[in-house]
Every structure is written in structure tokens, then in C-alpha cells.
Amino acid sequence: MSEGFSRPVAGHVPVLRLGDVLLVTLQGDLYDSSAQQLQQDLSETIARSGVTGVVIDISGVEIVDSFLGRVLAEIAAQTELLAARTVLAGMRPAVAITLVELGLTLPGLRTALNTEAAMELLARPVVASRSGGRHEESP
Amino acid sequence: MHTAAGVEARLPIRSDMDLVWVRQHVRQAAARLGFGLVDQTKLVTAASELARNTLVHGGGGLMEASHVVSGGVDGLRLAFSDSGPGIPDLDRALSDGYTSGDGLGMGLGGSRRLVHDFEVESAPGAGTTVRVTSWVTGPRHPRGGH
């Protein structure tokens, strides 16, 4: 195979802890099983460590199909139940265009243009709202 | 009418590792033909959805990729085939929100929106073949050419 292939990510996706936030950087092409493993690892790590936020940097991800989209949405829902918030950072424009056309708009998923903006978003206080969801206060 | 230069690659779809190879092959082939980044991303995403259908619903199968030319325009045709149970109700399978597996119901209907041409052949017990073609549109971006 030629050098143009990005290396598939098999097995473990590393999860880094930065204070109250877990940082996950997805790179290249993920196996389905790696995405599912990450989903499980994150829930366990949040429950064990009590972090309040998760940032998933997908700037190195070339495509998000409905499978990976579903895993990301489930991660966000799970972290919410574990009293933490997930922010998806750095989605490529071509990926965003494709997801909308595919019909997968991932409602409820917080996004930020990059990891730094995601960390800032998580640093803001959360207020409970009567409409069921929660929203961040503007600074 | 278009001329097909013949099947250029046959890739097995038997595991989630094969899905990775399918995506990478389609991305490389599309880039070589001069597809822009957004069109490449759409085609690779469609290929990933369809290959997963082949794996999950069809019990595995294969993808054939061919370079096609119509009116001087290059295209990439991908055919996903399996000899699985087939799709009993195609109209329903193509409608948005329909799902029979553990997806989000974006599989067929969603993939159709990501490509230019889309056809399905399927019958109960006779397997399924989905053929999609996308054409290089807009200004050419040949690889490495600036």
C-alpha cells in the first residue's frame, strides 16, 4: 500500500486528563471496535475520576459516518448522565457539510472550532434551565 | 452512455478492518481522479455507510471500484454486493429514518444524497447490490497540480 494511507487506529484511543477535563484526540481512520472501546473507557474514567468535562478533538478525522456519529452522540449523552459535559472540537468543514447532507445533525452535541475554544466553553458555569436541558452562561 | 475502464479494484468486506480499507481505497481513488475535498468526503462517507450495510445486513460481501468516463467527465463507480437476505421493501429501506440494524437509519437514504447516481438491486433471498457513481465536478484539482 502507498504512503498516502493514513494509519488505521486499532485498539486503544488514549484519554488524557487535564485538571477537570478529559482530552481525547481522534486521528485518522478508526476501527468501529476502537470507537466502541473509547465509549466504554470514557464512561469508566469519568465515573472513577469525577471530571466535569470531556473534549473530543476530531480535527484529524477525515470522515464521520453514521456509526461514528452515533458513538459520539452516545458519548455525549452518557457523560451528561455522569454529571459531565462533552464538547466536540475541530470538525473539518467537509465533514460538517457531509453530515448534514447525510441527515445526521447530531442535536444536543456541543461543538467548538478548536480544543482551546472547547476548554473555554467547559470553564463557563452551567445553569439549570426549566426546559429540561442545560445551557452555558455567556461570559 | 459512458465507458467503463473496467473494474480496477475488488475489496472484500468481511470485518470492520475491511471498512477501513474500503474508505482509504475510495479516498485515494477519488483524489487521483481529481475530486475536490468535499466531494471526496461525501463519497468516502457514502462508501462507509454502504460497506457497513454489506457487512451488517448482507453478512459480508465485496466492493468493486471502477473508473468511468462520460462526456469527457471522470467518475468513480462503486458497487457493493452481498448474497445476504436481500431487502424486502426497497422503498421503505430508502426512506429516511428507516433502520433495521443498529444504525441511525441513515444508511441507504443518506448515502443516496451523498452521490450523483444511485441504484439498488435486491430481492428477498437473492442478495443486494448497490451501485453508486460520483462525477468530478467543478474545476479540476489534479493531484499535485497547482
Automatic annotation (TrEMBL), chain A:
Residue stretches making up the STAS domain: 11-122
SUPFAM superfamilies reported for this sequence: SpoIIaa-like (SSF52091)
CDD domains xrefs: STAS_RsbR_RsbS_like (cd07041)
InterPro entries membership: Bact_StressResp_Reg, STAS_dom, STAS_dom_sf
PROSITE patterns recorded: STAS
Domain of life (superkingdom): Bacteria
Protein name: STAS domain-containing protein
TrEMBL record, chain B:
Domain Histidine kinase/HSP90-like ATPase per the UniProt entry, residue ranges: 38-138
Cross-referenced CDD domains: HATPase_RsbT-like (cd16934)
SUPFAM superfamilies reported for this sequence: ATPase domain of HSP90 chaperone/DNA topoisomerase II/histidine kinase
Superkingdom in the source lineage: Bacteria
Pfam families registered for this protein in UniProt: HATPase_c
InterPro entries: HATPase_C_sf, HATPase_dom
Protein name: Anti-sigma regulatory factor
Organism listed in the record: Streptomyces edwardsiae
Lineage: Bacteria, Bacillati, Actinomycetota, Actinomycetes, Kitasatosporales
